[in-house]
Write a structure and sequence with these properties.
By secondary structure, this protein is mostly helical. It contains twelve helices and no strands. The longest helix is centred in the middle third of the chain and has 32 residues. 46% of the residues are buried.
């Protein structure tokens, strides 16, 4: 059966290349969803397009779908691909991968109709995350690679967060919707901080074309882990803004030091390196804005969108481009010029969504609308350039 998980040396080539490895359907699905969902959100937010929403607000509907729809799809595609590399054990492919993808895709389609089909969407959505955990855990447990338990724990907490959202929307958990949305957002930021610590120094050291050893520190690692854990608890469950601001300032300082240690001039010649650097810089900006909230009349949404639109959006597009090139047998150092344009569009969108409202708040709706258009344009470019790569077999004839 093509849906089984076996050693890669025993794998036949699938008749459908799109189902050979997790990054293929999930990256394509995430990019298409990024376009359609934000276009729909633009219609609802800017042009008052009617959408039947009950139990949650339209803002919570949008936030849920960008976190548990878009971002989790990218995480699924990345982990199903990366875990195969880390463990040497083949992850889901063929019919098994198709089934997992369907569990993600059907709730996304149902949410296009508002909350009319919330019960069915909730059932399939939770089943998707639980199935993803099993699919990722199997190879990890098989080779006893216990160092991946932190990532497994974050996936499990995402399942809990999504469950809280649905139970809150149904009236069973007080503040469940808030816990689900903000818990999900910060879990993804935490996962990015974890993966960024692993991947960015490695990508830079092997990608700049000259010998360099980037600075890392166990002290920074431990400080970041502890501070972020306390920040998560305070933000999601306690809601004490002064304490949250103090923790945010600490995270801003730690992340700034880390970014200085990761910088070398060679990154600016590689779009798939400088984009990751800028993504983490915008996460750093998010921490700074969170730290300034008690002292200035700032909207918390600006910090949230520095994290989400800037940090998550740019990092996901960059990683999707990099992984898609590398795992289809292409050179990650030679992305299409169009990819640079797409990344630049997202960076510009981040400025419109986060920076310009600080300068000219009277034009807030215009800034939001422009940022939405730039987001759609960026992921449309990705779909146009990368869908042939994702649909067709690897250029080197290997499986994957």
């Amino acid at each position: 059966m093509t849906s089984s998980t076996t050693d890669s040396t025993q794998l036949p080539l699938s008749k459908i290349a799109l189902l050979n490895l997790g990054f293929r359907p999930f990256f394509l699905g995430a990019a298409l969803f990024a376009i359609v969902s934000v276009a729909l959100w633009m219609g609802v937010y800017a042009f008052q397009l009617p959408l039947q929403i009950e139990g949650i607000s339209i803002f919570q509907w949008h936030a849920h779908e960008m976190i548990y729809g878009f971002a989790v799809a990218v995480i699924a595609g990345f982990l199903l691909t990366a875990v195969k590399n880390w463990t040497g054990v083949q992850t889901l492919y063929g019919l098994g991968l198709l089934g997992l993808f369907a569990l993600w895709a059907i709730p996304r389609i149902l949410f296009f109709f508002g909350t009319c089909f919330m019960g069915l969407a909730a059932t399939l959505d939770i089943l998707f995350i639980l199935s993803l955990i099993v699919a990722v855990a199997y190879p990890v447990f098989k080779v006893r690679q216990w160092k991946q338990m932190g990532i497994m724990a974050k996936l499990a907490l995402l399942a809990v967060g999504n469950s809280c959202f649905y139970l809150g929307a149904a009236g069973f958990i007080e503040n469940g919707v808030y816990i689900g949305i903000y818990g999900g957002l910060y879990l993804i930021i935490g996962l990015m901080l974890t993966m960024g610590r692993r991947l960015i120094p490695f990508f830079v050291e092997v990608g700049v074309g000259y010998p360099v050893k980037l600075l890392n520190s166990k002290w920074l690692d431990l400080s970041s882990l502890v501070l972020f854990l306390v920040f998560f608890i305070v933000e999601v469950f306690i809601g004490n803004q002064p304490i949250s601001a103090l923790l945010s300032m600490g995270l801003f300082i730690i992340t700034s030091v880390r970014l200085v240690g990761w910088h070398t001039v060679g990154i600016w010649k590689q779009p798939l390196l400088w984009s990751l650097f800028i993504a983490f810089l915008l996460i750093d900006v998010g921490f700074l804005l969170m730290a300034l909230l008690p002292f200035f009349n700032l909207s918390k949404l600006l910090a949230i969108h520095a994290f989400s639109f800037g940090g998550i959006g740019i990092a996901t597009l960059s990683m999707m481009a990099r992984v898609s090139l590398g795992h289809t047998g292409r050179d990650v150092k030679s992305p299409s010029v169009a990819v640079t344009i797409a990344l630049a569009a997202l960076i510009a969108g981040s400025l419109f969504r986060v920076a310009l409202p600080l300068i000219a708040a009277d034009f807030y709706l215009i800034w939001v609308l422009v940022s939405q258009i730039l987001w759609i344009a960026a992921f449309l470019i990705f779909v146009i350039i990368y869908s042939p790569m994702l649909i067709k077999p690897r250029v080197d004839g290997q499986f994957g």
